[in-house]
Design brief:
CATH architecture: Roll
Distance between the termini: 32 Å
Structural class: alpha+beta
Strand order of the largest sheet: 1-4-3-2
Helix content: 25-40%
Strand content: 35-45%
CATH class: Alpha Beta
Largest sheet: 4 strands, antiparallel
Number of strands: 4
CATH topology: Bacterial Protein-export protein SecB
Shape: elongated
Length: 139
């Protein structure tokens, strides 16, 4: 069962810069950031920024959006789990926005790569136990 339920979301900002001329091969990269603000014991707000740009020439193509979601906390758990759950709920909306904007801008649709937030070291919940085992020489 999910720990949060998205009540609504909105696009806070959207920037699109396209200076592509002719046939150009782009090497796209993306950055994703996500922060959570806890407002009440059962309410939080997630803010996600997704940016896609050309690695070699970011001035040629750059899309950046910030999406904010309001979440009802359904089950009280550690904030790290809530952070992951809000990320998983909000990311598809930001990803779809980038794809839609790029497709409607007359360029091939840009598909933001999925992010496995749980594999990121900061969100690996097994790390404290693993570290302890490593320190004790059990691993």
């Amino acid at each position: 069962m999910a720990n949060v339920q998205m009540k609504n979301y909105k696009v806070k900002s959207l920037e699109f810069h396209n200076e592509i001329q002719g046939k150009v091969q782009l090497k796209l990269s993306n950055k994703v950031s996500h922060n959570v603000r806890y407002m009440k014991p059962d309410l939080c707000e997630g803010t996600m920024t997704v940016e896609v740009f050309d690695k070699e020439r970011p001035d040629v193509l750059n899309i950046k959006t910030t999406v904010v979601g309001l979440f009802q906390i359904k089950k009280q758990v550690e904030k790290e789990f809530l952070h992951v759950d809000t990320f998983k709920e909000l990311f598809p909306f930001a990803k779809a926005l980038v794809t839609t904007v790029s497709a409607n801008a007359g360029i091939p649709p840009i598909i933001v790569q999925d992010v496995d937030i749980e594999s990121q070291e900061i969100y690996r919940f097994d790390l404290p136990a693993r570290k302890k085992k490593e320190d004790e020489g059990d691993v």
